[in-house]
Amino acid sequence: MPNLSLLKNCLPGAVWKRVVVVLLICAPFKGFSQYWQAGGFLGISNYSGDLVQQRVDLKYTRYSIGAHVKRDVNRYITVRAGLTYGRIAGADSTNTDTMLLRRNLSFRSPILEAQLGVEFNFLDLDEKRITPYVFGSVALFSFYPTTKDAQGNTVKLRALSTEGQGLAAYPTRKQYNLRQISIPFGAGVKVLLTDNWVAGFEIGFRKTFTDYLDDVSLTYVDRNTLLRSRGSKAVNFAYRGDEVTGGHVTPGTYPADGTQRGSAKYNDWYVFTGFTLSYRFGGGGGYGPNRWGKQKVSNCPRF
Predict the structure, then answer these.
(1) What is the architecture of the domain spanning 34-292?
(2) E-strand spans in 92-224?
(3) Which stretches make up the DUF6089 domain (predicted)?
(4) Rounded to whole angstroms, how far apart are CA atoms 174 and 172?
């Protein structure tokens, strides 16, 4: 950056005024020389938590869809912002562990996520036409675990305080927030289809700071206390082992206060995997392998 005060002293007044005008006019064009992208995402969503024995149970794969805006800062760095909607689910009925089968819990939840992050591209996309990339973001997401009763009706689980959240008898168990922060990160590959269209595929893991995506985390609370505070419906959905039918597992009775219900050792995760398609525009310096090297201020008056 030139020393403007020194430049002012060295130039006649009329020339200096022209320089100032040129700088003011050209500044926007220099910023415009970077690409913008707008596009969409279509894929699947998965969950990892207390209601699956494996890290991820593909039997409970659900859909996800989203939209994004990106800006290429240079050939390797891309800033991204996006909004994604997906659904996650899990159930004890497909587990093999007898204790989990007897617990007989299930859940489903929508996930709505807004994220802001950065991609690092390993190659120059305009030169190679393809590049792998990694990304990291910060996101705000919302969720709401529900389940189905024996008649197929939807039941909202948070309001039932199934693990004593918000009850005076369990002061350390605070009600969980339905809006949380997550840390999305992952990897993908993008392909330059034409000068304007970019296709990609990515997998993104979401580290959360809650263990209640599935409404399961700690231990059972006293049945009578839960009954008095939240009613019989809360008791019925805190433990559903009495609904078990068929197979080698016999129906159970509500466990004693303090019996393990979930595991708070690890927080829950969710994952979005899918395809992206983006339209890019701007760029100023033209398309092609040498685009970045040829970027320069244009459309500026001369004097």
Answers:
(1) Beta Barrel (2.40)
(2) 106-121, 130-143, 146-148, 154-156, 179-192, 197-208
(3) 19-215
(4) 6
